[in-house]
């Protein structure tokens, strides 16, 4: 007999997400549906404002991948105005963007994702001495590994358990058979879970040095950056280098070995392709390496289809369409974001026995379904690595091959839930190392006397009638902003966030989104404990605040709609 | 729903008091001591103690005491209270916290993870008994829902409710829902606040609606104080909040069992009592008439005043300039960008522009609609005029607020304890939601 499982809230993510899944007799998922449950209408709010202020406001789309909408918005407006950045501005932005990656990826792995692999309670029965050996298995220099450290961690956990209140660990799925790590491995990971809480503060300081604060930095303006004081101070940049080294040490000594450890334990699933999903991967390209627009990038853009690494298709922003067949908007034409002309069309949910269900045959999500060249694709760290691996990007090839070799895995292991998680870590290593290079360039450039941080432009002229787009690779995948400007004001604003690509509902051809596809074939050890669903969904690092804010600026006013009595029905 | 914000805030001044002055009487200290003794007698909820953590992190007694005296000063308490602040920090794990989120970007949760100097603040985060927080908790789905209900039941009347994010009312509250039953956030806020000792609204969105409520407020979003009428509320605004201000408020609640003295917008006075402009590191340049005129110009390279680049420090009350962010690493003005007024009501429509107000076409009127800054700007930055007028506006607004606050909330005067919570209901308020998420 099939079962219909509703998981809401999906915790340990950014934003509010609901997953519904149909499972068969063997508790294997046959169908899955994903929907966001929070909406703010930020594009509507942006309309009519000064494009120079859009970034500050757009940034508030998300506080977890903080800043991504800030610089992408600035890039879109700069594209519309035809403004080119100075060398310093490009390097500073690369460093600010990079500091988000080295902060966000470890925090995602430990605080948001690790508890899908790591059984906190099992760590209590570990032998701390043996745990030290485990810590040395994948690295010669494990982070903060000693018997004393592990004993302290155990004592901390023990005191939590003794009080009967596990705090944030309460009601977890401890003891579930799909936890595969040994007690010692669990202990090492839990210890790093706690270490991350400290190291992420250091990582955040990277962004704060050049951005003023974190979350929500405040040093980017259309045309450049404002942090002149910080880049002309050698001590400040040296401090940046020091924090970067500390974070890199953590990535090398804790994050990478722990991912390899999890990879080893879940290798069978990985090789079987559990959580593979669509198999189509898209990357816009990000982190410009020189000052010419359209020049080389750390990650180049492209698309790989059906996991076929022998062919890379080019990425073209004009080939992006948004389909609304299963989204709460009128119509079913797939339109480019500049032409997006959707009108909200809320069709509600089914309510039975106090539970609300998505009407999956019709419209069931606020997310639109984006396509590229009419393909449904996945974006994110795995997509970036696969596209660049296939394209022969030497930096990516070297990093991916190196890590696969360390774990003794074939490349096919990447096409899975655990592969997605590993890709995020490999990418952190790549970016941390690139950041050291950018910092060096910035130090040399400012030492040589170049302190230019801003390109001037005549706002009144360039903002009369303009349109532009900004593309970026951000922690959760590929992000794009499209902006239309008339008489110095925003006429239309559209965002397609990474999670829009990944968490989208089915499209007009009935093809599932990336989450929906990845969940099919995932087997639950216990259907009342959605641990495996969490593991696969978390491997994408969902960011719902980013994705669920889309309403076309020319759509009907939402206030015109029927108001449903509070609690009577839910709007996903 | 059209909310007249001006009317709203004029009538919603809430609890107010005079700040604790140096002649604090003995009875107050006795009262605090009594409160701490009571808390000490309770079982710690998280089992983590501050003393152990300090030791573990290699923070000596001396450094801790330095932090205590800095914090005591920050809370505008006389040095006499230092021992009690130290004790309050140590027993904070007796105060359970439930943290819920609506229309937010989770920036405050992130800031909460980040914390700032002094280092002890971040350790305190490890000692708070955080019973429910979607972003970091292990449980999901039904298990998460159940966790929240357990926490409410076990700590009824004692817990601190933290609200992050605005509260949408459009579509029957459907723009933000949670749980198997798809409970609108507005209902969740009302239900969970019923058993809360105090409600702390964190970040701009929860304190004033901010971004979701910015013109044209498409989801009809409200702030926490517009939704909860019967519980004491403290607002810790800014986008996102400075964790120092959150810790200070928790400390003060632990210490006194009461909410700290608040200003007209329910912000703790110790944190939001001064304008950014008053403590700005670039103030001397303002006084000398030295301004950045264009991004990256010679003025920018010399750290001149950012007023002409749209800095709203003269209109914004916050302590960013003195406590800074990310362990005193920097702050927006330090990074060469003006203040956007993020701790002020309706700042997206009033202040968040990179130009001075006179040069900005702002549709929305100011909170009090007096256009003080406009006229001052036209007078060409007459510095005393501007600052004087700003201060006068602030003072008058506070005065009005004070008067109304007294008149409308006589029971919320700080000398009296906050009204006790109503008794727990016989059945859990969300009984219907706990019926399970799995249907064959």
3D structure, described in words:
The complex is a heterodimer of chains A (572) and B (440). Chain A is α+β, with helices and mostly antiparallel strands and 572 residues long. Chain A has one domain: Cytochrome-c3 Hydrogenase, chain B, CATH 1.10.645.10. Chain A has 18 helices and 16 strands. In chain A, the strands form seven sheets. Chain A has a three-stranded antiparallel sheet with strand order 1-2-3. In chain A, strands 14-15-16 form a three-stranded antiparallel sheet. In chain A, a hairpin with a 5-residue loop joins β2 (17-23) and β3 (29-36). Chain A starts with a strand and ends in a 25-residue tail after the last helix. Residues 548-572 of chain A have low confidence and may be disordered. By secondary structure, chain B is of the alpha/beta class. Chain B has two domains: 5-270 and 419-432, Rossmann fold; 276-396, Cytochrome-c3 hydrogenase, C-terminal domain (Cytochrome-c3 Hydrogenase, Chain A, domain 2, Irregular), CATH 4.10.480. Chain B is built from 21 helices and ten strands. Chain B has helices at 5-11, 26-41, 50-56, 61-74, 82-90, 107-114, 120-127, 141-154, 170-173, 185-193, 203-208, 210-213, 224-227, 243-256, 269-272, 283-287, 298-301, 320-323, 347-350, 372-378, 383-408; strands spanning 96-101, 129-133, 159-164, 167-168, 177-178, 183-184, 196-202, 221-222, 233-236, 438-439. In chain B, the strands form three sheets. In chain B, strands 2-1-3-7-9 form a five-stranded parallel sheet, sandwiched between helices. A two-stranded antiparallel sheet of chain B has the order 4-8. In chain B, α4 (61-74) crosses α5. Chain B is globular. Chain B starts with a helix and ends with a strand. Mean pLDDT of chain B is 74; it is low at 1-22 and 360-440. The chains are: A alpha+beta (572), B alpha/beta (440). The interface between A and B is large, with 118 and 109 residues.
